[in-house]
User: Which sequence fits this backbone?
DNA sequence: TTGACAGATGGGCGCGCTCCCACGAGTCTT
DNA sequence: AAGACTCGTGGGAGCGCGCCCATCTGTCAA
C-alpha cells in the first residue's frame, strides 16, 4: 500500500549504475565483479530494500529450495505427536542451515496420497521426505519414477533401494528383550507393530534374536500384533493375558502401546514390574510419565529428522548419491522392569 | 530419466491442435471454450500427463497458493506438542480444501524471526499464520507493513488490529474458577501464564472475574506467574504453597503447568482433590492421563487452526476484510476437583 | 607498438505461464 | 442485407530472473 511496487533486479541495476547481470552476480556471490561495482550494488540493494523474487528465480533455475515432508495423518494422531514433533524439529533445524523451506503435507487418506504426486509434480519442491511408509506403499516408487529425490524415515524392507535413515530397530529390540531375560524373565510376550511395516518386523526380529541368543524358545503364542496405538496395545495385552496368563514380561514395540499394555495390566490387577515387566520403544516424553516410569529403547528421533534433511539436501544441492543410514538406539532402564 | 522433459502448455497446445491460451483456459476452468476444444485439450493433457508448472504460474499471477505457519520453537518443545499437532492438523485440513500448500517455519530465536521477514519478502507465500505472539512482538507489525495478509492465533492485546482467532480464555477461566467456588473452595490460587501474552492475562482476568461474581476476594498472594511449562508449574506451586499453605484449590492456566502442580502437590503429600482441587486449561491428551484425571477447560485447538486457515484463505483468495473470532471453551470436569 | 589474454560487464534470450487484445465466424436485429 | 453483437480463439507481451556470449578494458610479453 506504499504505492510503489517491489524493486526488481532492474531497479537495482539502474540505481547502482550497472547492468542486471552484475546485480545478479553480486546477489549470487560470483567473484567476477569488481570491488567498486559490488559496493555500489550492495548499497543500492540496501537503499531499495531489494529482495530477489524466489519464484522468478525458481522458474529459471528449476529449483525451489523447498522440500516436502509427507506425514500420514492417521499416524500423526492418537498421541504419537511427540514422534512427529521431534522429527519436524530435526528436519526444520537442518533445513534452516541450508536455507531451505519446509512444506508440510499431512495426508489424510489414500486419495490425498495419490493427489500428492500430482501436487509434487508441479515442481514446487526439490525433494521429498517420507515418513511411515508401509511395505506396499506406491508413493516412493512414483516419486522415484518422477526423478524426485526422496529420503525415507525407515525403510520399506531390508532390500530398500531408496535413501533412508532408520533407527536400529532390531538391535534396540534385542537389547530390550536381552535386558528382560537378564532380569530372569522367561515368558516374554511381545506386542509387535504392524507387520506390513519394516519397523514392525524388525522390532519383532529383535525379540526373536534375543531369545535365540539366550537359548530360550520364543513362543508364537506370546506374539500379538498391534498398530502402534494405545488402544491397540491394550487390546493386544488382553489377548496375550488370555492366551498366556503366566507371562512375566512384555516387550511393546512402541511406548504408546506400552501405555495401553500397562493400563490393561493394572485393570487385571497385575503388578508392574512385580508380576510383569514392561518395556516400550521410542523413549518419548510419555515414558517418563507412566506409572511406573517406563523402561524403553531410546530412538534419536530429532537426529533422525536432522539426518534425513541433510541427506536430502546433499542430494538436491550437491548431487550426492543415495545414502542409507542406521542410527543407534539405546536402552533406557526405568522402573517398569 | 525417461529422456524427454516434462510437457509444457505449448506441447499440450500442439498435441490438441489449439493455441496456448485455449489450453490455459481449460486448465483454469474458463467457460469460454467450446466443448470440442475442451475435450481435445483434456485428452492431450491426459496423454502427455501434463501438470502445470506452478512456479511459472506464480511468476505471472504473483500468487503462490502457499501460506506460512510460524511457530516459535521454544513453545513447540517441552510437551506442548499436542497443541501444535492439533493446530497443524486443523490448518492443514482447511488448506487442503483450497489446494493451498503449508510452509512450516519453526523459529528458534529472535535472529531467525527477523530473517523470517526477509524470507517472507521473497514472496514465497501469500499469507502468514502466526502463533504464540507476545504483546511486544514486532513481527506482526512488519508483516502488516509489507502488506502480507496475516492471521494470529490469539491476539496481542484487547485492541488487536490484525485478524485473529482466539479461544474464550477469560470465559473459560471464569467457568473453571466458578466451578471451584461452587465446590466450596475458598482459597483458590492460580498459576497464570506469562503476563506479556494476552492469553496469560485473559485467563488471569477470568480468575478475578469469578471471584468478583461470588463476592470472594481474589488475593494477590495466591497469584504466581508461570511460563506454560511443566517445570514452571511445579515451581509456581512450590512458591504458592510456601506463601499460602492453606490454599484449597489451584487453577493452572495450562494443562502442562497443572501437571507440574500435581507433581509438587504429591511431593508435599497433599491429596488431590481431597486437600487441593486442581483445574488446568486446554484439555490436551495429557489431561486424561494424569493421576487423578484432570478437570480442565477444553479449547477447540484443531478448529482454531482450521478457522485461522479459512480466514486467511478468504483474505488471500477473495479479498475478505479483517476478521476477529473467539471460539467458545468448555469446562470438562474430571476427578481432580 | 601490437597481439594475446584474462578480467569485468551488460544485453539478449528464454524459463512456462497468464492476460490483453485483435480477429474470424456465426447469430440476431432492423 | 448490413451492421451490431456474442462467442471462440490464438498470438504477442511480459512477469523477474539466470546464463550464454559478445564486447570492452587493461595488462603483459614479445
Assistant:
Amino acid at each position: 500500500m506504499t504505492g510503489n511496487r517491489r524493486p526488481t533486479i532492474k531497479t537495482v541495476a539502474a540505481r547502482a549504475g550497472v547492468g542486471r547481470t552484475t546485480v545478479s552476480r553480486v546477489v549470487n556471490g560470483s567473484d567476477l565483479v569488481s570491488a567498486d561495482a559490488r559496493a555500489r550494488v550492495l548499497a543500492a540493494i540496501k537503499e531499495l530494500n531489494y529482495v530477489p523474487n524466489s519464484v522468478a528465480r525458481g522458474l529459471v533455475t528449476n529449483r525451489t529450495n523447498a522440500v516436502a515432508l509427507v506425514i500420514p495423518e492417521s499416524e500423526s494422531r492418537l498421541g504419537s505427536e511427540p514422534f512427529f514433533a521431534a522429527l519436524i524439529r530435526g528436519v526444520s533445524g537442518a533445513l534452516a542451515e541450508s536455507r531451505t523451506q519446509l512444506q508440510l503435507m499431512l495426508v489424510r487418506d489414500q486419495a490425498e496420497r495419490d493427489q500428492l504426486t500430482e501436487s509434487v509434480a508441479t515442481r514446487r519442491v526439490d525433494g521429498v521426505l517420507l515418513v511411515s511408509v508401509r511395505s506396499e506403499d506406491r508413493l516412493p516408487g512414483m516419486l522415484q519414477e518422477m526423478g524426485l529425490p526422496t529420503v525415507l524415515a525407515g525403510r520399506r524392507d531390508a532390500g530398500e533401494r531408496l535413501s533412508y535413515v532408520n533407527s536400529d530397530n532390531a538391535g534396540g529390540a534385542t537389547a530390550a528383550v536381552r535386558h528382560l531375560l537378564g532380569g530372569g524373565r522367561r515368558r516374554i510376550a511381545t506386542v509387535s507393530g504392524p507387520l506390513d511395516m519394516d519397523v514392525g518386523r524388525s522390532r519383532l526380529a529383535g525379540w526373536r534374536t534375543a531369545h535365540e541368543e539366550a537359548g530360550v524358545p520364543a513362543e508364537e503364542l506370546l506374539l500379538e500384533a498391534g498398530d502402534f496405538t494405545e488402544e491397540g496395545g491394550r487390546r493386544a495385552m488382553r489377548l496375550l493375558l488370555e492366551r498366556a496368563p503366566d507371562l512375566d514380561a512384555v516387550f511393546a514395540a512402541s511406548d504408546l502401546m506400552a501405555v495401553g499394555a500397562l493400563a490393561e495390566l493394572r485393570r487385571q490387577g497385575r503388578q508392574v514390574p512385580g508380576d510383569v515387566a514392561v518395556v516400550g520403544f521410542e523413549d518419548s516424553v510419555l515414558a517418563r510419565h507412566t506409572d511406573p516410569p517406563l523402561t524403553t529403547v531410546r530412538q534419536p528421533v530429532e537426529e533422525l529428522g536432522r539426518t534425513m534433511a541433510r541427506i536430502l539436501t546433499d542430494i538436491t544441492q550437491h548431487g550426492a548419491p543415495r545414502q542409507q543410514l542406521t542410527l543407534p538406539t539405546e536402552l533406557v532402564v526405568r522402573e517398569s522392569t
